[in-house]
DNA sequence: GAAGTTTTGATGTACGTAAATCAAAAATTT
DNA sequence: AAATTTTTGATTTACGTACATCAAAACTTC
């Protein structure tokens, strides 16, 4: 049987109350006594029963999620996962609130963070926009002991406790590597369509993609990046223009959202087969495009995993517990039409 | 506040004892009364506090993991993850035992399952060998209410409760798709090296690979599969022979273990660059080979995720609880040298 | 060594559920 | 309607921890 506080009290030759004082570092214990107890804990290998402790404490975890609004299918998928987590709340002792803010708007995001601060939750998860006012708002949360996890797009150099998202430089590199190999022997430049250079994840994907093409596929020209604001209509216009201007375009890397526009433009121009398209995020539309061959590869981050991971980390950090790093690493899914999962999205 | 059994008793106008009888379907409740209670549960949205219930029950989960022995690096990785789970046991209320059996030996595996049966655990996780005596042994476990999860290699048509592993047909198809695209414009046949056709996962990978090459890359010849028994020395001999016999060999798909042999043979023959190699499982050796360019793509299943998933499912099924399917889907990692995770393996 | 302060012990209640016991009430059978 | 069986209620203990209270003991300090 695993040892309990009673066993420790016996082993250390002190009372239960003293063990309790040590465990919850309450005042009024001489350091000699504290040592005795800590030695007993070590020799017996005592681990606090978190479930029992939470039960006794009646602990719950008020959490706030802040996501960009708009029609971005991936973000709406994230939102759906947050709502699924809300439904599980009673079983997980969480109380989750959801805030939506305009996309790519640092000011609005900072305001939302301030609002979150006012509500004094145990933790906040936020899809970050990389801007000083956001960094500062995060710092203020941390200063009040509120755990902050960035989601999807990170805010390095800020005080955030954890990033729940993929390595976007690696994602960009992966896209570059696959694009380079798939186009072996074919001529023509490749284009990059981003959402906005204001968010870190897009900047990092671009950086990784460019680095690999530059270093490993030197002959391949990369056209200047175009920004589609994650908006399908705008993306369609931009891609159509690209296709017209570059009849020899060999590939397109779409590293943001709005892929409906990408697909529409490619099909409109009758270049769906000819142009190698690599895009991000599995949505109903992108899935269909992958299956039809318009999109060749989809890089994806599993929204469900990200949300569940964020919640696990928020709860653990709120309790000052360690997290299993390997378990919380969000992986880059690479989907070809052959390894698409059946379910959702 | 979330409702408790007391609230249900009040709402239903019955006593606590009756609520308890309904909740834990103990006998001695008229169906009218049972209905009243169930309606109260529904209207209040009561969810059992699993933590409190487990605490009260003093529940623990004795589990047995059965893995193949030998030097297979992936299996040793699995074992390491099982040991890591053992270390977490006190916090997770599990009591995990580990049994190792000779690889590809159905008789030995059936015996191990019988031994596991004798120990009467709550659940068993097993890397299956596809044979009738194994299927029967699994059935006997199930008949005694012991949960069975297959790990890595499945046993469909058996009574197992769940499979914790990747879709191996999809994995094979993915390898085929990538191989076909990477070799575009290059001539020459491709070879397949398996471990043994006795295990389902290898058969399925082969099937998927062949199907894609046959359907999408018709011109590409596939050489007859060779079986390396997941043994590096044997694999090296076989691959060396293949390379000698086929100077124009364009690619090799290694769908089993023993990749040290594959890499050695390729490098020995000076064909590391020329031949496109796709292999399975991230190990220190295969990682090095990927980084050096000898291996072009690694398909991987995360051993840590598989073990943790198996444990979650075993516990849930042992309690008759539902599992979050999407969370338990083990994904096929596709690693290029650009998206290798830093950590372990 | 008396007064004061700090440290420790003893004890009880609470969290939400499980499980058991015994008595009381209701339904069923005779 | 009495006897029997089934169903229900009331109450208690337990799980492992948190937290509070009050008294007793051990240290300081003068």
Automatic annotation (TrEMBL), chains A, B:
Per UniProt, which keywords does this protein have?
DNA-binding, Transcription, Transcription regulation
Q: What is this protein called?
A: LacI family transcriptional regulator
Q: Does the keyword Secreted apply?
A: no
Tree of life domain: Bacteria
Q: Known SUPFAM superfamilies for this protein?
A: lambda repressor-like DNA-binding domains (SSF47413), Periplasmic binding protein-like I (SSF53822)
- Specify whether Iron is a keyword of the entry: no
Entries under InterPro entries matching the protein? HTH_LacI, Lambda_DNA-bd_dom_sf, Peripla_BP_I, SBP_2_dom
Q: Which GO terms describe its molecular function?
A: DNA-binding transcription factor activity; transcription cis-regulatory region binding
Q: What is the lineage of its organism?
A: Bacteria, Pseudomonadati, Pseudomonadota, Alphaproteobacteria, Hyphomicrobiales
What SMART domains does its record include?
Answer: HTH_LACI
Q: Name one Pfam family in it.
A: LacI
Q: Which PROSITE patterns match?
A: HTH_LACI_1, HTH_LACI_2
